Amino acid sequence: QILYLKPPWTLANLLKCYKKHWMAVFGYVVPRSLLSTIECLSKHLYADKPFDSSTVSILLQESKKLLHAFSCRSDYNGVLPQAYSEVTKLCETLGEVRAALVEQDLSEDIMVLSENAACEKMEATVPNLQSTEEKELHPSFHVAQESRHQEIWSVLEGVWNTMNLYSVELFQKLEPSAVSVAAKASFEEAFLGLQKLLAAVKDIHEGIGR
Fold first, then answer.
1. Which InterPro entries does its entry note (predicted)?
2. Helices H, strands E: what count in the chain?
3. How deeply is 61 buried, as exposed, middle or buried, from its count of CB atoms within 10 A (0-12, 13-18, 19+)?
4. For residue 30, what is the DSSP state?
5. Is 138 domain-assigned?
6. Is residue 40 located within the same domain as residue 99?
7. Are residues 90 and 175 in the same domain?
8. Rounded to whole angstroms, how far apart are CA atoms 105 and 93?
9. Is residue 97 situated within a structural domain?
10. How many domains does the chain have?
């Protein structure tokens, strides 16, 4: 009777209901600071402009934060773990696509640089060649580095969320009344998450060594 918008709801309706009833209802279920996540989703999902990959990445990460927060209350008959898994897959797919694009751009830049180097050598203008290389390489390497940082961050976040879910489950076993049921992650997911973490740490270590 007091609902801001009556069902059936569209996603836009739900986001409006979240904002309208946030302080009185949802702020008591999940951290109130997540209102910024609701506003971010609402702002970008219904803006009259196309998305770039960075915006999509932000929306997926914000969605994961919201789903994870509600999963600490309940798994909602298995719906939340499934939704979280699908969003995680989308994050991984986006990361792979962005990494492939960066690698492609980097390869093209290296080819251009090789051609430029040959021309500059013939003209015997070594100082100018070094300047050209620095100008050409810097943007590409910056993009590649930023993409790598985002990939590492995503892996660390995935491991954290998985271990957090296991912690909630563990405390539930020890004292059922203390913690509500959380979304369950499989042992396979935990193992794969740790494998990704090891690979990421190895890459960081090798990078520092270089």
1. SWT1_Regulator
2. 6, 0
3. middle
4. S
5. no
6. yes
7. no
8. 18
9. yes
10. 2
Which residues, in sequence order, are CB contacts of 190 under 8 Å at separation 6+?
Answer: 162, 163, 166
Please say which residue of 82, 106, 130 terminates a domain: 106
Same domain, 178 and 98: no
CA atoms within a 13 Å half-sphere pointing along the CA-CB vector of 1: 0
pTM: 0.50
Q: What angle do CA 201, 187, 172 make, to 5 degrees?
A: 110
The closest alpha carbon to 183, from 38, 55, 28, 70, belongs to 70
What gap in Å lies between CA 207 and CA 201, rounded to an integer? 10
Length of the chain (residues):
210
Separation of alpha carbons 153 and 200, rounded Å: 9
Q: Is residue 158 part of a domain?
A: yes
Q: Using only C-alpha atoms, what is the Rg of the chain?
A: 23
Take residue 144 and report the two structure tokens written for it: 């590649």
Residues of the chain with pLDDT under 70: 1, 105-147, 175-187
User: From the centroid of its chain, how far is CA 23?
Assistant: 27
Q: Give me the domain span that covers residue 52.
A: 11-106
Distances (CA, A) of 15 to 38, 142, 202: 6, 36, 41
Closest CA to 66 of 89, 27, 37, 92: 37
Same domain membership, residue 82 and residue 17: yes
Task: Encode pLDDT of 74-108 as tens digits.
Answer: 889 989 999 999 999 998 898 888 887 777 766 66
Q: Which amino acid is present at 16?
A: K
CA-to-CA separations, 136 to 43, 103, 117, 140, 159, in angstroms, rounded? 36, 15, 12, 7, 36
